[in-house]
């Protein structure tokens, strides 16, 4: 029986590639159908890839830490006797009739074999486009290509619909850097010698004890990529407001036990989300994103709030859906659920998708305020900070009040500074007089 080549399956809408974080099997292992083969990290979530048939693992072709396009071969399996052999269409995004030849698929996947000559590595990443056809790529990716000094029009795209991605640019630039230089000069003019300064003698440090090197992979790699894209693409500006939330502190304290009886842990975040929801109805261009590929601003007519969560594996942003239709108690329960799933590594792909606005809460850690980085391509992100007792002027007298800062970072391409200021004024008004939130239910 011939070997079965198992490709990276289509694991979610809009997901074009994934990084193998960890293999759960080794070459030579006997596997059963639905055994977990590996964990794959996409820009949406970490998912487990099950085995499609019983058999023996012959070769693993996608190395850990390497980004692999959907449809490229992950591993080959020798099927067990009598095993049903699934078609590629059952597990990938290709139709059986228009599947690429096996050699082409294998070429797209990282193969654990002896390295090919550098020139071949370059040509394998190139494509000849018809005259007049440009590569499909975002402005950020084109900028990355210019910075790397490579011609994006020659690069094969492994993204959705053949889009050239940042990973394609990096792979191509690395291959070009490894290729031998053409017509390199054999001689060069020798500059006049310059007297070198007396070197400073430094203490000898045994190898391996002076630093720790940590591979950039998995969740940390995705965070690094997204933060770099956000800061390189979105035109950040941050607006900060100081609020007297003494009445909010009192209201939350009074309602905590009632919420607990209803099965919800009541924090300040549900109140803040309700105030933000109200403000977004008045300033809807903050509830959307910039589609750089199509050069369009997109305003969303639903409210799904991403909640930044600090986990053992790094920052994750699970999404609470339909915020504008939930009560404060319902929001409290939903926040608890999605945050707990994220921390426990049980977040479903659906809980990490389709956000329209993000809130990051560092209030329980400390600090005065921060300038949060936009969860690109969204239009804005709100930073929630610690509540502290401070002297405050009320009716001409100095009294002790509960004070906090809110900071909002906004993509200035889509919204002006005045929009951010008006938005924050509305949020502040609701949180400083939380009785008005009852009108938002």
What are its keywords?
single chain, 441 residues, alpha+beta, 6-stranded mixed beta sheet, 4-stranded antiparallel beta sheet, 10 helices, 23% strand
Secondary structure elements and pairings:
Elements: E1 4-7, E2 17-23, E3 30-31, E4 36-41, E5 46-50, E6 55-60, E7 67-69, E8 73-79, H1 88-91, H2 102-108, H3 118-124, H4 139-148, H5 166-178, H6 218-233, E9 236-244, H7 246-261, H8 269-282, E10 288-291, E11 296-299, E12 305-307, E13 309-311, E14 314-316, E15 319-320, H9 328-343, E16 357-361, E17 380-394, E18 397-411, H10 417-432
Parallel strand pairs: 12-16, 16-17
Antiparallel strand pairs: 1-8, 2-4, 2-7, 3-6, 4-5, 6-8, 9-18, 10-11, 12-15, 13-14, 17-18
Helix pairs in contact: 3-5, 4-5, 8-9, 8-10
Description:
It contains ten helices and 18 strands. A hairpin with a 4-residue loop joins strand 4 (36-41) and strand 5. The radius of gyration is 27 Å and the shape is globular. The protein is α+β, with helices and mostly antiparallel strands and 441 residues long. The protein has helices spanning 88-91, 102-108, 118-124, 139-148, 166-178, 218-233, 246-261, 269-282, 328-343, 417-432, and strands at 4-7, 17-23, 30-31, 36-41, 46-50, 55-60, 67-69, 73-79, 236-244, 288-291, 296-299, 305-307, 309-311, 314-316, 319-320, 357-361, 380-394, 397-411. It is 27% helix and 23% strand.
């Amino acid at each position: 029986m011939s070997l079965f080549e198992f490709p990276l399956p289509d694991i979610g809408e809009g997901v074009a590639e994934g990084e193998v974080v960890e293999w759960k099997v080794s070459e030579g292992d006997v596997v059963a159908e639905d055994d977990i083969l590996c964990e794959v990290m996409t820009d949406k979530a970490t998912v487990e890839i099950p085995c499609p048939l019983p058999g023996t693992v012959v070769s693993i072709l996608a190395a850990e830490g390497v980004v692999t396009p959907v449809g490229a071969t992950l591993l080959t399996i020798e099927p067990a006797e009598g095993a049903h052999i699934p078609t590629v269409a059952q597990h990938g995004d290709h139709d059986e009739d228009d599947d690429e030849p096996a050699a082409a698929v294998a070429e797209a996947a990282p193969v654990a074999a002896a390295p090919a000559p550098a020139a071949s590595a370059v040509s394998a990443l190139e494509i000849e486009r018809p005259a007049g056809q440009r590569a499909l790529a975002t402005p950020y990716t084109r900028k990355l290509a210019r910075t790397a000094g490579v011609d994006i029009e020659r690069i094969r795209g492994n993204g959705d619909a053949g889009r050239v991605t940042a990973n394609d640019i990096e792979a191509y630039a690395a291959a070009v850097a490894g290729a031998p230089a053409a017509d390199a000069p054999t001689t060069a003019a020798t500059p006049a010698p310059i007297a070198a300064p007396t070197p400073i003698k430094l203490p000898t440090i045994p190898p391996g004890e002076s630093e720790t090197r940590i591979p950039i992979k998995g969740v940390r790699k995705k965070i690094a990529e997204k933060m770099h894209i956000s800061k390189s693409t979105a035109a950040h500006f941050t607006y900060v407001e100081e609020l007297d939330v003494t009445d909010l502190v009192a209201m939350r304290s009074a309602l905590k036990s009632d919420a607990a009886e209803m099965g919800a842990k009541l924090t300040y975040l549900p109140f803040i989300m309700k105030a933000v929801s109200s403000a977004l109805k008045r300033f809807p261009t903050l509830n959307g994103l910039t589609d750089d590929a199509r050069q369009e601003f997109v305003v969303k007519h639903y409210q799904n709030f991403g909640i930044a969560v600090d986990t053992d594996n790094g920052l994750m942003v699970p999404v609470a859906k339909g915020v504008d239709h939930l009560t404060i108690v319902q929001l409290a329960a939903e926040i608890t659920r999605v945050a707990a799933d994220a921390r426990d590594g049980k977040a479903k792909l659906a809980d990490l998708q389709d956000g329209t606005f993000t809130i990051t809460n560092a209030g329980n850690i400390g600090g005065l305020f921060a300038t949060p980085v936009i969860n690109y391509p969204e239009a804005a992100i709100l930073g929630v900070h610690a509540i502290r007792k401070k002297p405050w002027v009320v009716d001409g007298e100095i009294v002790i009040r509960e004070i906090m800062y809110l900071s909002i970072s906004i993509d200035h391409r889509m919204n002006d500074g005045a929009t951010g200021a008006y938005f924050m004024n509305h949020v502040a008004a609701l949180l400083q007089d939380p009785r008005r939130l009852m009108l938002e239910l």
